[in-house]
Structure formats: C-alpha cells, structure tokens
Amino acid sequence: MIFAARKGCTVKRVEDAGGHPKKRSEMAFLDNIKFKPKMLGLFLFIGLVPLVIVAVISINKAEDAIMAESFNKLEVAREIKTERITDHFNMIYKNLSSYAANSAVVQAMQRFDYAFITGGTKGAE
Predict the structure, then answer these.
(1) Distance CA 35, CA 12 (A)
(2) Which of 4, 40, 54, 115 has a C-alpha 20 to 30 A away from that of 73?
(3) Is the model more confident about 24 or about 55?
(4) pTM of the predicted model as reported, rounded to 2 decimal places
C-alpha cells in the first residue's frame, strides 16, 4: 500500500529511507480533512460530551426523585386506607356493643337460637 500526504495541491508519495512506503499512523484519517471541519468537530465533541454527561446524571437523579415521591404517595395511601378500615371495624364493634346492651335485641336473639335448635318456625306451630 502506498500512502500519500497532501502538500499544497500536489500529492507526494511518502517513503522511509529504504524506499518503502511509511506505515500509516492511527490518526492519518484526519490528514485528509481540512482545518475548519476538524475544529468544528473538536468543538462539537468538547461541547457535547459534558452535555451528555450532565444529561445522564440529571435523568438518574430525576428518576430517583420520582421513585421516592411515588413511594411516599403509596405509603400515605396505605396509611389512609389502614385508618379507614380501622375506623370501620371500630364502628361495627360499637354497633354490636349497643345491640348487645339492648334488651329487645337480646330477647330476639334468644328466640332465634331456640327456633334454630327446635327446627325453626314449623316446630313452634
């Protein structure tokens, strides 16, 4: 393979002292690009790399904040539902206590119990 370097408008063959073509360096692809596009690419690279890094960090922090807020909302909803269920059972307990203290309800329950044991209303006839 023969590699050439640009010098002005002419192309010159690059050889070592023995007349053999020189090995191409790893950055030789940049030799064929003009100065303005090289600088534009360099400035874009220098500007975009920090922007991408900041964007990734911001996205991670925003995701963590959203997750924390969601968990907090779920915990609050759990506490509210627990309180509502506890209040419901307390209300049922109070109703049962008031029914148990009512003599008419106690008599009716005793009659229902007797009717159940004796076979219902058919046995009372």
Answers:
(1) 20
(2) 54
(3) 55
(4) 0.48
Residues 12-46 have pLDDT tens digits of 566 666 666 666 565 667 777 888 888 998 899 99
- Quote the DSSP letter at residue 24: P
When the pLDDT of each residue in the chain is averaged and rounded to a whole number, the result is 83
Q: What length is written for the chain? A: 125
Report residue 106 as tokens: 């106690």
**Count of C-beta atoms within a 10 Å radius of residue 9:** 5
Half-sphere exposure of 12 (CA within 13 A, CB side): 9
Chain position carrying tokens 């100065």 = 35
Exposed e or buried b for every residue in 35-61, given b needs 16+ CB within 10 A?
A: eeeeeeeeeeeeeeeeeeeeeeeeeee
